[in-house]
Amino acid sequence: MDHLFITALWFFIIYAILGWCIEVTFQTVTKGKFINRGFLNGPVCPIYGFGMIILLYFLSPFTDNLILLFIGSVVLTSVLEFITGFVLEKVFHDKWWDYSDC
Length: 102
Prior knowledge:
Structural class: mainly alpha
Mean pLDDT: 91
Number of domains: 1
Number of strands: 0
């Protein structure tokens, strides 16, 4: 297999698991009980894995410019979350997350 694909797959797996761990830890601390933030059976949130792959692919040319790297990260992850939320709402007819109470 292609080395780039294997590397991307590992980044996806690692960041999908790390994202799940951070979300579960945050919810456990703020709510006082364990809440599984993933929708899959297992410790994984794929949106974090996809987010990291997108950031690595699109922002690798900007590693020397921290301002562009920051702005690009904010924009790309926001677009990913918006598109993912929109598609999930259309497919499943339910909101999977809601920031109206923030």
